[in-house]
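Entry 14. Two folds queued back to back today. First construct below, sequence then structure tokens.
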Amino acid sequence: MVDLVISLFLLTGVGFMFVAALGLLRMPDLPMRLHATTKAGALGGGLLMIAVGIEFFGDVAVAAKAGAVIVFLLLTAPVAAHLIGRAGYFVGVPMWPKTHKDELEGRYDHETQTLMSPPGLADKTQDQQPKG
């Protein structure tokens, strides 16, 4: 029974990794590719590590390492995708022509590499600050 559960986790993890690879090949621009690979890749890797943890459940060191890998994946994958996407935007990687809205357009200073608040937001935050 345990082998069946392990096989299920392995096959599901490999399936998600395959979907991540397909997303990398099939998606039209960088943000979509990052979304596909980050979500499906982290989930697939996590499922594979769960299978490893179940297989070596008696060995606490291996199970702890598998748990640490899962935590590491969940913490680093979104951060890495954000940084890669931001770098791609900074250097001018073209977006898909059918993209309807670029929310960073006109709000990014290319010289200082800082992001400006949307118009009107600065006034709202000043109104919400306590007086005195």
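Second construct, same run, same settings:
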Amino acid sequence: MGKGQIASRQMMKYAATRLGLAYLTAETHETNYRSRKMLSSAGFQESGRAGSELYEGVQTALIQYSKTI
């Protein structure tokens, strides 16, 4: 398990136990494959595709994710 996965699991645990959150959302660019892979590995599910913005100089679609914790 990489440092990013460890950090994201720690943050999710904190969000659930200390902040009382039960639901998380995230968003990334369609072409940001590392971020998409990390979100998937953390148990996030794609929940929609809406909007776009510049990413590395190219107009890129945004993907929304969600996860119940």
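Quick look at the second one. The chain has a mean pLDDT of 94. The chain is about 35% helix and 40% strand.
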